[in-house]
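Trying the structure run again after the queue cleared.
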Amino acid sequence: MKSKILVAALAVVVLASVAYAAFSQSLQINGTGTATGDWSVEITGITNTSSTGTTEAVVPSFTATTASFSTNLQYPGATATYNVVIENTGTIPAKLSTLTDLTTLNASAPAYITYSVSGVAVNDTLAAGGTATAVVTVTWDAAATGTSGATKNATIDFNYVQNT
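Done. Tokens:
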């Protein structure tokens, strides 16, 4: 009786081993895929939409998705506002993944002049063929005292990635 149980147990182990070996082999799939699309997200223009107390000696410039500003403000309370037009002229939807850290930028000297960005935010999407307008505002704190005439340079990056 014991030998029959031992033979049966041995048969189960052998069958289990064979089954495991049959199902543990690697599966390899070969093939090719083709993806098409055009990636083209870029700043197409910057316009000064309003200003109070500025002398605009340096016009903002841009390349791809980077905008550079050097606004000359004349006194506390002075401001300048710019529209930064960003277009997706490609065929792939985009998403704003990062924007320059304005906290660090605004903490740099002179700290009484600050930059802000509205109209776009991280994770905003931009459809193929779509346009977004970022509003960049430069402000000399009205409560600041002392000097007259100051400039603060800023470079703002609008980094877009494919919207998946």
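The beta strands are 41-52, 61-63, 66-73, 79-88, 94-99, 113-118, 125-126, 131-140, 150-162. Worth checking whether this holds up in the mutant runs.
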